[in-house]
Amino acid sequence: MKYMLLIWNRPGFVEELSEQDRVALFGEVDEIMKELSESGELIGGQALADPSQSRTVRLAGGHPEVVDGPFLESKEQFAGYLAVDCDTPERAAEIAQRWPDVRYGGVMEIRAIMDEAGPEM
């Protein structure tokens, strides 16, 4: 089964870390990514640019309108994702629990990726 692990973080938290903590955090991420690559579970993943560079499309006056920013009613912003192919949902949760951002107040959301047939709905 394929899963999308969505990374949610408080904007600016990385900049607040000491250089030593930043190096440690990114080292842990590199270690997890290497492990997932070697096991064949990693499908892909990317960090996202700062939320200030976001655009959102919303319905306004009956027409789609593009506005600046994510404008979510949340302290966390979508920061990136991993796509993994795991045998069980528990394995996807295990990977998410190890993600170091969580220790700094981030959140990992685990979502199953639908097959083309869509039986997961």
UniProtKB/TrEMBL annotation:
Domain YCII-related: 1-115
SUPFAM superfamilies per the UniProt record, alphabetical: Dimeric alpha+beta barrel
InterPro entries: Dimeric_a/b-barrel, YCII
PANTHER family (alphabetical): BLL7171 PROTEIN, BLL7171 PROTEIN-RELATED
Family membership noted in the UniProt record: Belongs to the YciI family.
Protein name: YciI family protein
Source organism (scientific name): Micromonospora musae
Organism taxonomic ancestry: Bacteria, Bacillati, Actinomycetota, Actinomycetes, Micromonosporales
